[in-house]
Amino acid sequence: MAEKRENIGIVSLPEYTHADPSFVVSGLCELGNSFFNHIGVPHRHDFYTIYWIKKGKLLHTIDAVTHEVKKNTLFFVAPGQVHNLQASEKIEGYMIAFQDAFMCLKDQTQVSGINSGLFFNNQFSSVIPLNDEQEKDIDAIVRLMMKELTMREPEYEMALHGLLRYFLVLASRIKGENVGISPEQHAMHNSSIFLKFKNLIEEKYFELKTVSDYASLLHIKPVLLNEISKQLSGITAGEHIRNRVILEAQRYLYNTDLTAKEIAYKLGFDDPHYFSRFFKKYTSQSPSEFKEASRSVSSQA
Q: What sections of the sequence does the record tag as coiled-coil (predicted)?
């Protein structure tokens, strides 16, 4: 009998470099076992990751959604997202990885549009095929990044910041999204509140479930938090909280063998039956129906 999977592993950046860097650029083959040992195993990163698959083909499952990734394709993984790579043939390419502190994406409203468009979205979709001309541009940036990391000349970290920022802008353009910031997002105070709110959700979604809880921590009224959320994201603060809880439940249902009852307790629900009703209300599926349907799709992929 197969061993019961109860946890989702977390991979840290030093595992790829045997050091403690804030920024890594490497060919996949050069990463060796530190990369290939994680293929086929659902896990999370505690850092931002960009993969560029130059040759080969693989299936990339992220938060229960599976994408076919063909040669010459970029894809993006945010910290905390559960993903699984399955390769049926030899793959070659590059990995760009960096800690949040390297770019401070959570705190810089000027890059929040790029961040949201590539690393965070409701239905993961940042799988970006490149044409020949785009490949040349991306290749030039990656080679400059690798040169800066190798040479480490004065102010090389500043150069890497600029190259990474340009890479994200270029990828956003290729994806076809508008990376400009709307006038509302230039309201620095509201943007700051919203980013703090999103960060608080990541830290406390398993214990805090209401808009009032988060509004209290932010020292504002719940109605104002909802207004800011609607203005900057299109959905209410309550929807953000519910979506995060449901996403984590789906991650555990898809990637572990825990029962719905065990997941309910893991996510801070005192009543497993209430958790099941909550899950079905917002997904139109019971936890067991979601598990069966998602794994059935995975087995056919």
A: none
